Amino acid sequence: MSGKRKRAVRFEMTPLMDVMFLVLVFFIYSMFEMSVHRGMKVELPSAGGDPEKGERLIVTILADDTMQLNGVAMPKSGVVERVAELYRVGMKFPVLVSGDRRASLGAGIELLGELKKAGVEKAVFQVERSPAK
């Protein structure tokens, strides 16, 4: 028995760390894919087009033409000032205008005009996808 040594039990951590890293990456990726609309529930008009992805500023126009920026109620001038301030500090996110179907068209057009004057490079309207025919 002197020629046989007992082998110590080894626990390899590398495969466990690989699995944990993949699980972490999966949950982080899932979190980014589950973006939640941060505005109020509005009835969107229908139209075709591709959905916007990535970070963006969401301006909600409610049925009574009041506005919100990322869920915070403020007047139109406040929305434009805040977006312009973000653009000045280099946070040039696209602006997604989520207008209720019952909101006046004039409120949306005026907002777009003022955002353009403030230097916003990209502003789009959020719509529901039209069913394929």
Shape: elongated
Percent range for β-strand residues? 15-25%
**Low-pLDDT runs:** none
Average pLDDT works out at 79
Main beta sheet = 5 strands, mixed
Strand order of the largest sheet: 4-3-2-5-6
Spatial extent as radius of gyration:
25 Å
Structural class call reads alpha/beta
Helix proportion of residues, in percent? Answer: 25-40%
N-to-C order of helices and strands: HEEEEHEHEE
Distance between the termini: 82 Å
Q: Count up the helices.
A: 3
Oligomer: single chain
Count of β-strands: 7
What labels describe this entry?
133 residues; alpha/beta; 3 helices; 35% helix; elongated
Structure, described:
The chain is α/β, with parallel strands linked by helices and 133 residues long. It has a domain at 75-133. The protein contains three helices and seven strands. The strands form two sheets. It has a five-stranded mixed β-sheet with strand order 4-3-2-5-6, with helices on one face. Strands 1-7 form a two-stranded parallel sheet. The longest helix has 20 residues, at 14-33.
Layout: helices, strands, pairs:
Elements: H1 14-33, E1 46-47, E2 57-61, E3 67-69, E4 72-74, H2 76-88, E5 95-99, H3 105-117, E6 123-125, E7 128-129
Parallel strand pairs: 1-7, 2-5, 5-6
Antiparallel strand pairs: 2-3, 3-4
How is this structure best summarized?
This protein has 133 residues and is α/β, with parallel strands linked by helices. The protein has 3 helices and 7 strands, in the order αββββαβαββ.
